[in-house]
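JOB MANIFEST
job_type = single_chain_structure
chain_count = 1
residues = 119
[input]
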Amino acid sequence: MALTYTWKIKTLKKTSGNNLNDVIVGTQWELTGTDSDGNDGTFNGATPFELSKVDPANFVAYENLTEEIVLTWIKAVVVGAYWDHVNLQINKQISNKKNPIVDVNDFPWVAPSSPNPAP
């Protein structure tokens, strides 16, 4: 089933260190997948980044960040088995919307009870 994906950044965590200010060291995000029938599922994720691995030569100042830049960092981490896990969770939610699991207590082996007659 082909899905259309929508990414959204929910929060950023920042700190200063290594002669850099306002360095992003964590994100919280969500990814929503929607099928052709409009059914959707959402995965909420968190991606940390190590301050010690920030390359000062390629550092983007906080005020110059865009959602697309941060999503590029996240998408570089959400690959392989992690992507498979995220996608599986989204597809499970969509499947449950199409074919909901419901609790029942009217068991086929129990005869329906009749209402008590009035005295």
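[summary]
The mean pLDDT is 94.
The radius of gyration is 24 Å.
exit_status = 0
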